[in-house]
Automatic annotation (TrEMBL):
<comment type="similarity">
    <text>Belongs to the class-I pyridoxal-phosphate-dependent aminotransferase family.</text>
</comment>
<dbReference type="GO" id="GO:0005739">
    <property type="term" value="C:mitochondrion"/>
</dbReference>
<keyword id="KW-0808">Transferase</keyword>
<dbReference type="InterPro" id="IPR051326">
    <property type="entry name" value="Kynurenine-oxoglutarate_AT"/>
</dbReference>
<dbReference type="InterPro" id="IPR015424">
    <property type="entry name" value="PyrdxlP-dep_Trfase"/>
</dbReference>
<feature type="domain" description="Aminotransferase class I/classII large">
    <location>
        <begin position="79"/>
        <end position="373"/>
    </location>
</feature>
<dbReference type="InterPro" id="IPR015422">
    <property type="entry name" value="PyrdxlP-dep_Trfase_small"/>
</dbReference>
<keyword id="KW-0032">Aminotransferase</keyword>
<protein>
    <recommendedName>
        <fullName>Aminotransferase class I/classII large domain-containing protein</fullName>
    </recommendedName>
</protein>
<dbReference type="GO" id="GO:0016212">
    <property type="term" value="F:kynurenine-oxoglutarate transaminase activity"/>
</dbReference>
<dbReference type="GO" id="GO:0030170">
    <property type="term" value="F:pyridoxal phosphate binding"/>
</dbReference>
<keyword id="KW-0663">Pyridoxal phosphate</keyword>
<dbReference type="InterPro" id="IPR015421">
    <property type="entry name" value="PyrdxlP-dep_Trfase_major"/>
</dbReference>
<dbReference type="Pfam" id="PF00155">
    <property type="entry name" value="Aminotran_1_2"/>
</dbReference>
<dbReference type="InterPro" id="IPR004839">
    <property type="entry name" value="Aminotransferase_I/II_large"/>
</dbReference>
Length: 377
């Protein structure tokens, strides 16, 4: 996987750098018009008839809406968005056919159970139990959410009180910020350190490192959770088992909950260890985030899921129920079929093979242009 790094390029001369998550990324258009640069703020809302709640009044416009609006306004077209995690092609045909069939059934057009359709929860449990080295209980250890992002919001809403601190590694998926701040959490940042020559030449994502002394110094009595993202967005780094163990040791020592964002868990080309599998002590404090949208090229379906022990999942489920009650029933059924038939159809292997080819092709293009990139292969 190419490190995504909010990369938005067309193969044209480069004009202006835009900063995203602390990285200077050249973009193929000039500065966006001022209307696309505005951020939401209490000042902007001062002329409106009703005062918004502070939890949304202070939210800045997210990077993707800024990038997408600026790209749409650019006279240089077409522009290929290589920064956002969506696909330019359809889910596999067998999954599309399952979705078509699902909307023809009466039960799939009504509310799904709040924690997800039993068939989908079982399919997820069957798919992930071999990875976790134990039988996952689909009724108590899995909750289906309206996309992985809503699942993460539900996790923070379920455990974060105002003033609690959550550690995230920079750079990061930008939605972490609003998801943590919505329930009143405060973010503490710990950088992933890039290789010294990363801006000059193509390098491996594994060369980005964590300073574990720096990480531990960030932990204090207010720290409640730590967000881990592997395979990492946007860098593409797959954390080694040794790195995960060091993070886990600190979380056990300081009694922290781990939110392990593993939505790219089917797209990796180096050894990949799942955080929750390190030990029973780590498992009992880890919530694993998954995404059917990422797995099956269907990000618009908004089907995600969290896996964790019952004492964690029940509170995520409680928050999820209040946020959206339940997730889209027919697409849950189609996702269940996706998991059930994936091995039989050879889907996972073919997906990784196809993505590897795309990575190699773009590496060739960027190398030809003299643009260094970060890759995880």
């Amino acid at each position: 996987m190419l490190a995504r790094c909010a990369l938005l390029r067309r193969i044209t001369p480069l004009h202006r750098p835009v900063v995203c998550s602390g990285l200077n990324i050249p973009l193929p258009y000039k500065a966006a018009p001022p209307k696309y640069q505005a951020a939401m703020s209490s000042t902007a809302a001062s002329n409106e008839p009703f005062k918004p709640a502070r939890r949304v009044a202070g939210q800045r416009q997210d990077v993707w809406s800024i990038v997408n609006e600026a790209a749409a306004a650019s006279p240089v077209q077409p522009i290929v968005n290589m920064g956002q995690g969506f696909f330019g092609y359809n889910p596999p045909q067998y999954v599309i056919d399952a979705a078509k069939g699902a909307v023809q059934t009466v039960e799939s057009n009504q509310y799904a159970p709040t924690k997800g359709l039993p068939r989908l929860k079982k399919a997820i449990a069957d798919a992930y139990s071999p990875f976790f080295g134990r039988e996952l209980n689909p009724n108590t250890e899995i909750v289906v959410t309206s996309g992985a992002n809503e699942g993460m919001l539900s996790a923070f809403m379920g455990f974060i009180e105002p003033g609690d601190e959550v550690i995230i590694f920079e750079p990061f998926f930008d939605q972490y910020i609003s998801n943590i701040e919505m329930p009143g959490g405060k973010i503490r940042y710990v950088p992933l350190h890039p290789p010294k020559d990363g801006a000059q030449k193509t390098s491996s994502a594994s060369n980005w490192t964590i300073d574990f002394d720096e990480l531990e110094k960030t932990i204090n009595e207010k720290t409640k959770m730590i967000v881990l993202n592997t395979p990492h967005n946007p860098v593409g780094k797959v954390m080694s088992r040794e790195e995960l163990e060091k993070v886990a040791d600190l979380c056990v020592k300081h009694n922290l909950i781990i939110l392990s964002d593993e939505v790219y868990d089917r797209l990796f080309y180096v050894p990949f260890t799942r955080m929750a599998t390190l030990s029973p002590e780590v498992s009992k404090r880890t919530l694993t985030v998954g995404s059917a949208g990422k797995n099956f090229y269907a990000t618009g379906w908004r089907v995600g899921y969290l896996i964790g022990e019952e004492h964690l999942i029940k509170y995520v489920s409680a928050a999820h129920t209040r946020i959206c009650y339940s997730s889209v029933a027919p697409l849950q059924l189609a996702t269940a079929v996706g998991f059930e038939k994936a091995d039989e159809m050879g889907f996972w292997d073919e997906s990784r093979k196809e993505m590897r080819g795309k990575v190699e092709r773009f590496c060739e293009i960027f190398d030809e242009l003299g643009i260094p990139v970060c890759i995880c292969v």
